[in-house]
Write a structure and sequence with these properties.
By secondary structure, this protein is of the alpha+beta class. It has ten helices and ten strands. Strand 1 and strand 2 form a beta hairpin. Helix 2 packs across helix 3. The chain is globular.
Length: about 290
């Protein structure tokens, strides 16, 4: 089998980033989880993972990330959870080519976990349908289900109630200030809006939806506030998730690249395309 085939050890399984086109916090459950409304879209900023099966049941990440303990990494936790749920005795060594910044509000960790679940489901011949994989992943991260299902979506609940949606797929300029934002820090802040009235898609289309995390993040992390203020000189820029990424929709790729050239290099300006279908979903359709 050629080394670019999805069942080969050399195949690079994609794990795309997402952006939140808005994010409202509508309440807080008794278990501490916040209820949300948000609109997810993927972008073509992508991590890649490679999986090498081993026969001793051990699961290891060969390319660990700085400041994240090996056993706490969502890749490792997802693989171990799938092995436990399935009873599969097979182990795996995992390589990660990391391009999505950690703590940027782009869902990189959740996307890595979702790709791990999907890839190992295939490589270990487990046969779980996507809905079950999403349920397996949900306790690890509320964003994991949207990455498993692979379609842009309107989301509610803690992020797991998904309604697939087709949106325009514009070019965006992302700015990635050099800070790492911990989601738990933002959601624990007493100033966070927690009672936003529920909205409909028509409200988003009319432009009234916001990101409720933005006031907290920009107060706690001044570089995010600076990047967002600069980007808003050129249009209605927004923040993704709890940050630190801020983004602006551009008229086309050339316009995004022109603006990127003017941005402070410390913000790591990155031009991306919006995607309604995850590149991972495209691979799974072809198998």
């Amino acid at each position: 089998m050629p080394n670019d085939a999805p069942f080969s050890a050399g195949f690079a399984w994609p794990a795309p980033a997402k952006i939140n086109l808005f994010l409202h916090v509508t309440g807080r459950r008794e278990d501490g989880y916040h209820t949300l409304q948000t609109l997810f879209q993927f972008v073509d900023l992508v991590d890649h993972l490679r999986f090498h099966q081993r026969g001793d049941g051990q699961i290891t990440l060969q390319t660990p990330l700085a400041d994240i303990n090996h056993d706490d990494n969502l890749i490792v936790r997802a693989a171990r959870r799938l092995a436990a749920v399935s009873g599969a005795p097979i182990g795996v060594d995992i390589e990660l080519d990391k391009r999505i910044p950690v703590g940027a509000g782009l869902g990189g960790g959740s996307s890595n976990a979702a790709t791990t679940l999907i890839a190992l489901n295939r490589l270990w011949n487990l046969g779980f349908p996507a809905d079950e994989l999403a349920d397996i992943g949900l306790p690890l991260g509320a964003d994991i289900p949207v990455f498993v299902r692979g379609h842009a979506a309107w989301a509610e609940g803690i992020g797991e109630r998904l309604s697939p949606i087709d949106l325009p797929e514009p070019w965006y300029l992302l700015l990635l200030p050099p800070v790492t934002v911990a989601t738990a820090t933002v959601f624990a802040d007493p100033a966070l809006e927690r009672a936003h009235a529920r909205v409909q898609f028509e409200d988003y289309s009319s432009g009234i939806c916001v990101n409720d995390c933005e006031p907290v993040t920009t107060r706690l992390f001044p570089p995010v506030a600076e990047a967002l203020a600069w980007l808003r000189r050129f249009g209605p820029a927004r923040m993704s998730g709890t940050g630190a990424c801020v983004f602006l929709e551009a008229e086309n790729r050339a316009a995004a690249e022109t603006l990127a050239a003017q941005a402070d290099p410390a913000w790591r300006p990155t031009v991306v395309r919006g995607l309604n279908r995850s590149p991972l979903a495209a691979i799974m359709r072809g198998l």
